[in-house]
Amino acid sequence: MSDEHPEFLSREIVDALHARSLKLFGGLQGVRDSGLVDSALASAENAWFYGSGDVFDVAAAYAFHLSQAQVFFDGNKRAAVAAALVFLSGNGIAIVNKYDDEIYDGLIAIAEHRIGKAELAALFRRLFG
Fold first, then answer.
1. For residue 47, which of 41, 61, 70, 86 is within the disulfide window of CB 3.0 to 4.6 Å?
2. Exposure pattern of 83-96 as b/e (b: 16+ CB <10 Å)?
């Protein structure tokens, strides 16, 4: 693990991503539990500091915890994938949208408990690594 840590997402960024998603696709505004949002963000940072120190694991942690905790009233999966991709992009990973279907399938698999964070990280690594 490097001594340098990545640029983590702030609460403000995640809230803005969620708001943008609602503006584009519709849905009910609001946060179900503010503490769950903060917990999801902390879990992603912990994936770096106490896990592998790999940006793909951190991105998967953002997506996993934001979607699983159902932190917003609506648009949780959209906010989760946006957070993961913005995190990767902000940390030097080139994101291309030719993988939309695979990313969608990965998030649905997370929501249905068919895969976990490690598998989602592996998907991100394969697509963007």
1. 61
2. bbbbbbeeeebeee
Measured CA to CA in angstroms, residue 18 lies from 6, 21, 73, 82 at distances of 22, 5, 10, 8
* Mean pLDDT, residues 5-22: 96
Instruction: Name 72's bridge partners.
Output: 31
Residue 107: Cβ within 10 Å count? 22
Give residue 3's pLDDT. 60
Element holding 3 (H helix, E strand): none
CA distance 106 to 123: 8
Q: Measured between alpha carbons, how far is 30 from 13 in angstroms, rounded to an integer?
A: 15
Which domains are assigned to the chain?
29-128 (1.20.120.1870)
- pTM for this model (two decimals): 0.93
Residue with tokens 């995190």: 87
Transcribe 93-109 into DSSP letters: ----GGGHHHHHHHHHH
